[in-house]
């Protein structure tokens, strides 16, 4: 993992077209601004993890249903 230090109003570039800017620092919270193309999907990690888990559940459910259909043939 690359670890960088930044101060308020300083930025980090990811590739050629994604810019992360430190907007505000208050205690243990940091507000980050993200400037990226609309084609880039951005999620907070906890939301991303929830989406992945829901996708896994849906895939397992689909497999269970498929197994039931195949057993009935």
Automatic annotation (TrEMBL):
<dbReference type="InterPro" id="IPR036107">
    <property type="entry name" value="CsrA_sf"/>
</dbReference>
<dbReference type="GO" id="GO:0005829">
    <property type="term" value="C:cytosol"/>
</dbReference>
<dbReference type="Pfam" id="PF02599">
    <property type="entry name" value="CsrA"/>
</dbReference>
<dbReference type="GO" id="GO:0006109">
    <property type="term" value="P:regulation of carbohydrate metabolic process"/>
</dbReference>
<keyword id="KW-1005">Bacterial flagellum biogenesis</keyword>
<dbReference type="GO" id="GO:0044781">
    <property type="term" value="P:bacterial-type flagellum organization"/>
</dbReference>
<dbReference type="GO" id="GO:1902208">
    <property type="term" value="P:regulation of bacterial-type flagellum assembly"/>
</dbReference>
<dbReference type="InterPro" id="IPR003751">
    <property type="entry name" value="CsrA"/>
</dbReference>
<keyword id="KW-0963">Cytoplasm</keyword>
<comment type="function">
    <text>A translational regulator that binds mRNA to regulate translation initiation and/or mRNA stability. Usually binds in the 5'-UTR at or near the Shine-Dalgarno sequence preventing ribosome-binding, thus repressing translation. Its main target seems to be the major flagellin gene, while its function is anatagonized by FliW.</text>
</comment>
<keyword id="KW-0678">Repressor</keyword>
<protein>
    <recommendedName>
        <fullName>Translational regulator CsrA</fullName>
    </recommendedName>
</protein>
<comment type="similarity">
    <text>Belongs to the CsrA/RsmA family.</text>
</comment>
<dbReference type="GO" id="GO:0048027">
    <property type="term" value="F:mRNA 5'-UTR binding"/>
</dbReference>
<dbReference type="GO" id="GO:0006402">
    <property type="term" value="P:mRNA catabolic process"/>
</dbReference>
<keyword id="KW-0810">Translation regulation</keyword>
<keyword id="KW-0694">RNA-binding</keyword>
<dbReference type="GO" id="GO:0045947">
    <property type="term" value="P:negative regulation of translational initiation"/>
</dbReference>
<comment type="subunit">
    <text>Homodimer; the beta-strands of each monomer intercalate to form a hydrophobic core, while the alpha-helices form wings that extend away from the core.</text>
</comment>
